Amino acid sequence: MPNACVPLELEIAEMVAAGKQILSLVELEELNSISKVSVLDLEQLHDFLHFQHSLGKIIYFDTLQLRDYVIINPLLMVEVMRSFVTDIGFWPKKRRMQVIFSRMSESGIIHREDLYQIWEQKDFRPILPYKEFIFNILIHLDILAEQRRYDTATGSRLPVENFFVPCMVTERNTTSFMEKECTPEKAICLAFVFKGTVIPPALPNRLISACLSMWTLKQYEGRKLLFSGFIVVSFDKAHDVVVCVEGNKILLYIVHTSSAGLIVPDVATGVKECLVTTMERISDFYQSTIHEKNIQQLPFQIEYSCSALKCFISEEKALQTNVWVCNEHKLTHRVGDWVVWNQDKNNEQCDQNCQGLSDDALSQRPSDIELLRFSINFESSQMYELVPYLEMSKEWGDITLNYPKDIKVAKFLVLSKWKEMKDKSNFKALAEALTKMDISTHVLCQVRRVRLAETDIPLEYLDCIPTDEMLDALAPQIGQIFFQLGAELGLSIANLENIQSNNSQDLAAQNKEVLFKWREDRTVKPTIRVLVQALVNIGRGAYCLQEILKNVDLNTLRRSEEVKGKGSSQKTTKKCSIS
């Protein structure tokens, strides 16, 4: 550190000794400017703040919401954490406080105003003048996570009043989700294994908060699946993500609604990459930016589970071993079994180690979305040959008569009708038909693939919910794809047929109703990211949506607390992948 910085460091030390704990950036700049020894220029002052932060002498985050203040006494954050992250024996005695802490312990939720009331206690009053700044720091550090709410009529994000506090949840998971849903038949698993026998509680708690900010908390048996060291979130309607702590491991499960063999590799790979990056950020607490690291430098190693979800093999060994037999169950695994976690998102064909759909997956009835993906990737000319093997020739004739100009919809509808009419309408029946046609059954693997969606839409827009105006503008532009788009977004065939019947001569109205019905569903958060991926999956592309967003102010999509007094944020134009 240059000697020129020493006077400012001494000035700050004197202020801390006098009881000062936070300075605004303006106050710090003034303190620097009146120095009688040396004055740092703006670049030097910026470097000074980052260096002092890295040493733990101050706390300074150079982000939009936090860069206006500097905590010059880091012990203040100890008091902040002590104010609400505490054992039951240290809860305040007042009844109102007891109610707040009891609710937080049971549900993991605290109201913004409740936390402000906690800070009104005598010991924590120094926090109050900076309560909004401190609150934003807690969110930035994943100690608090927003419980987001949306206006179901407009899609606008409502002001956030409730926040999750995972580190205060003491209740253990007592639901039957793991026994009934997270089974070897439906799930795959990997583990992040840390050195030592126990993981510091702060790390999994912050990881859980990060999951809450990215995905929708799942409800099961009437309860939200957030417990001590355990969370389940919905990635989409077919996939759930489970994160739980066991000893020195953080276990990650991807759970499919029907079969582990139908888990989309792009989903599993994307979730894995997302959590690795998140844990790298969490582990690197004092860094304000994330630097790419070699996997050996991380505080954990990745291990893959056997198909019984119990035995584990290190990622390095798994990818170098052609055959692995787990110790406890004597189950044989091949290198292709790990592709689901390491999918090459740019490769649209099966990997050379692909073993096709598993026996369990073949026994499952395909969902509408899976049939849609199959129909999109199946040649129209081949459909005429396929339908006799499915005993659907008459239905195919009727459907093509009703949709003479839209063979893509006809392909999807005949498969949907086949699933509805036939008792054995499973993947095995499709595989047998393909074999009779001398077509590789790896065609079915396409139901487990989603196209990599790339967009120039700024990153900060992607997790926002589209507004009425955006959907109104998009509906006339996306063309005659309402059936495919609706199915990809999870609407039922019955819903789509009703939409078509109600708006038979109005294509834009059909598209609009599909978009609005999708947005009303809160099973999975209906974000711009989801809409972009759906448009790409059905082959339409998201350029039309990108053009609409050029005229949308980010502030109209964000909650009011984030933009109050800040003005518009600078847009990022870096191309990003949707995963």
UniProtKB/TrEMBL annotation:
Pfam families: COR-A, Death
Domain annotation Death: ranges: 467-540
GO biological process: signal transduction
Keywords recorded for this protein, A-Z: Repeat
Keyword field contains Repeat: yes
Signal sequence interval, chain numbering: none
Highest taxon listed in the record's lineage: Eukaryota
Disordered: region residues: 560-579
Record's protein name: Death domain-containing protein
Source taxonomy: Eukaryota, Metazoa, Spiralia, Lophotrochozoa, Mollusca
